[in-house]
Inverse folding.
């Protein structure tokens, strides 16, 4: 500083403070000269050789050089990352998503046909393939992930042998003498409309079916029936499909050539897997041998005479009988590219147009609500805010609520905070899963990845749940924070555990393969208490440690009496009218989602589902804002719970829709399948309530803070 006509300054160190006089100064001296002297004196005090002070032009040049250096370092780091990624992609050991990189087979190479499960849309109870007395092979189960174990979706060897581009005719799998009990078991599965699911190179076997109208194009369905029933004679006659004609489509793409595989240019990959089931009672010369061997020549099926469904040769299983299981292998070259081989499973024909209708319908609902919100914010709120700011004494309308609007709810503070935290956790779990699904990480080829991703994301989103739950409860100035944290960590997982336990007990009583093993239960419990619960407590600790949220208005000690409200502001009326809007925005897409769950259809249009989820969240936010605005204008400051239950009531509509779907679209009639259906639909409705309720609350809280921050209040 310039003191008494001389520059003086201090350099404070850890131990001493030194003062040095400088040259004479006056008020007209520039600050630059003082900086030069200060720089030179500091260097002398630190025993460093002095350097020539830089001019403003030189300083700018040095700054530019430093920026160029930093930019060059950043670009070099990015370039190195790109080189590393290119090296990984260029090697055969590159990181790849399972099921996305095609598997190449050399000519005569082994192609595994694996057994998946027995499935039925009538009973909703899957069974292991070998639950029925099919030909037993050296059963080798493939390792399963968590999602596969929960869904009972395992793969095991089937006994069918195939080699790339090697056709086979009427190959004998085995001979079995069915007892009365085994035949009755086959008949029961035929009555329950069970289908057999086989898998080749991750492709489920399909069967071409002609629609009821002959003018309709044939369509493909997964799996083939165990058998069929003929009632033309007045009573039921059961027939078993014991001969399978497999047609395997392959594509020889030179770009897929691998020198480490045999076959040369004949290398190929599988692009299709179809089956034609045939019921035929095989005949053979029993004088040569009483039993069938691999070398036995059948009279009803051989290389010169192919098997077919004929009325006089059908295999009846109305009683004990002898069954010979056989199969054909037909290899057919196809121009279908490997990336398009799932189209036959995902193609839904006119349903694609219905999907677009669903998105358009949801978008129109959102635009309608957006127009309402825009009208309120642009016209009503602007007029209100200008009027309130011009006249400070004007406390009419929603401004009258400035001393009450942030009053905590009178009841259910813990439950409110738990719902908010858990709802945000479930919402982020869904969006994270849909995000990775769009990038192809979750695909029909990756069995079990969808369920596994949901569980993993839910567990790791526990930090978010604990944080928002703690912040909300602290804003209410609650004191029982331990109870809030415990409920946030255990309430929803405990509810899911009860639902899964009920379903698992029902499946185990039926002997279903979907019954969860004890090791899987242990894994789920370990994920909950080893990952999710500690993360919830960590998030809660972070939330409670932060300062209290700053609110734009203070709350009076004495609550204002709420005047009598119109009938249409009754909570039941508001929930009934408000809940239908979010449900209407997703109703069509919900129909397709439930068809995929309960009718054994593949659902892989995650782009549609992500758009629908975004529309749902926006719809809930706009609905809650509109309801809150009209509620404040009627001098009702109890908006907290309304912001959750108004959009959350759509969960009740989902439950009602599931009842209609159960009666109209499914063939479920037995007690156990009905129990499984409604337990899962109650769980789905609860998740819907959490997602819509938390979205509405967050939007409403931001809206209330914004409007009361824009007006002048005492």
């Amino acid at each position: 500083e310039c003191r008494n006509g001389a520059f003086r300054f201090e350099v404070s160190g850890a131990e001493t403070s030194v003062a040095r006089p400088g040259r004479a100064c006056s008020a007209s001296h520039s600050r630059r000269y003082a900086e030069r002297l200060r720089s030179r004196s500091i260097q002398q005090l630190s025993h460093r050789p002095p350097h020539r002070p830089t001019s403003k032009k030189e300083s700018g040049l040095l700054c530019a050089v430093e920026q160029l250096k930093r930019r060059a370092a950043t670009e070099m780091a990015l370039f190195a990352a790109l080189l590393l990624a290119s090296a990984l992609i260029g090697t055969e050991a590159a990181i790849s998503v399972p099921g996305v990189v095609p598997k190449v087979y050399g000519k005569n190479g082994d192609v595994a046909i694996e057994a998946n499960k027995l499935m039925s849309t009538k009973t909703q109870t899957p069974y292991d393939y070998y639950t029925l007395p099919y030909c037993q092979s050296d059963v080798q189960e493939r390792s399963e992930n968590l999602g596969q174990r929960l869904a009972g979706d395992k793969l095991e060897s089937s006994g069918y042998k195939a080699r790339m581009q090697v056709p086979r005719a009427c190959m004998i799998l085995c001979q079995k003498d069915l007892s009365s009990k085994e035949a009755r078991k086959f008949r029961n599965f035929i009555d329950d409309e069970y289908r057999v699911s086989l898998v080749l190179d991750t492709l489920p076997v399909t069967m071409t079916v002609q629609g009821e109208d002959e003018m309709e194009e044939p369509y493909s369905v997964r799996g083939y029936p165990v058998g069929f029933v003929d009632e033309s004679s007045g009573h039921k006659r059961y027939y078993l499909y014991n001969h399978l004609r497999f047609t395997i489509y392959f594509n020889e793409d030179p770009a897929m050539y691998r020198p480490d595989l045999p076959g040369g240019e004949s290398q190929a990959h599988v692009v299709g897997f179809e089956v034609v089931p045939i019921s035929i009672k095989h005949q053979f010369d029993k004088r040569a041998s009483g039993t069938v061997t691999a070398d036995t020549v059948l009279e009803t099926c051989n290389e010169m005479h192919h098997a077919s469904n004929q009325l006089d040769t059908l295999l009846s299983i109305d009683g004990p009988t002898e069954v010979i299981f056989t199969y054909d292998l037909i290899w057919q070259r196809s121009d279908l590219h490997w990336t398009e081989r799932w189209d036959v499973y995902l193609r839904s024909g006119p349903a694609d147009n219905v999907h677009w209708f669903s998105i358009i319908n949801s978008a129109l609902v959102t635009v309608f609500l957006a127009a309402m919100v825009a009208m309120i914010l642009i016209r009503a709120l602007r007029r209100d805010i200008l009027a309130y700011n011009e006249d400070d004494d004007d406390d009419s309308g929603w401004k009258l609520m400035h001393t009450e609007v942030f009053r905590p709810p009178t009841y259910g503070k813990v439950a409110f905070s738990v719902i908010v935290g858990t709802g945000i956790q479930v919402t982020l779990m869904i969006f994270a899963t849909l995000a990775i699904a769009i990038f192809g990480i979750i695909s029909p080829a990756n069995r079990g990845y969808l369920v596994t991703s949901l569980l993993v994301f839910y567990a790791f989103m526990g930090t978010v749940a604990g944080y928002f739950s703690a912040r909300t409860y602290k804003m209410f100035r609650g004191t029982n924070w331990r109870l809030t944290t415990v409920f946030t960590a255990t309430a929803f997982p405990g509810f899911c555990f009860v639902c899964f336990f009920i379903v698992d007990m029902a499946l185990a009583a039926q002997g279903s393969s979907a019954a969860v093993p004890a090791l899987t239960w242990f894994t789920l419990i370990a994920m909950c208490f080893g990952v999710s619960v500690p993360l919830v407590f960590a998030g809660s600790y972070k939330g409670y440690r932060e300062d209290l949220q700053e609110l734009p208005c203070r709350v009076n000690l004495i609550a204002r009496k709420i005047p009598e409200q119109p009938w249409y502001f009754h909570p039941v009326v508001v929930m009934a009218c408000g809940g239908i809007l979010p449900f209407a925005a997703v109703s069509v897409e919900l129909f397709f989602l439930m068809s995929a769950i309960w009718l054994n259809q593949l659902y892989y249009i995650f782009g549609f589902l992500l758009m629908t989820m975004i529309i749902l969240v926006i719809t809930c936010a706009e609905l809650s804002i509109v309801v809150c605005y009209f509620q404040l204008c009627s001098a009702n400051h109890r908006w907290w719970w309304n912001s959750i239950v108004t959009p959350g009531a759509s969960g009740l509509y989902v439950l009602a829709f599931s009842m209609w779907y159960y009666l109209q679209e499914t063939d479920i009639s037995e007690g156990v399948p009905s129990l499984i259906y409604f337990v899962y639909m109650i769980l789905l409705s609860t998740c819907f309530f959490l997602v819509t309720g938390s979205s509405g609350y967050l939007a409403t809280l931001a809206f209330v803070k914004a409007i009361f921050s824009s007006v002048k209040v005492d």
About this structure: DSSP finds 16 helices and 16 strands in the chain. The first helix runs from residue 31 to 45.
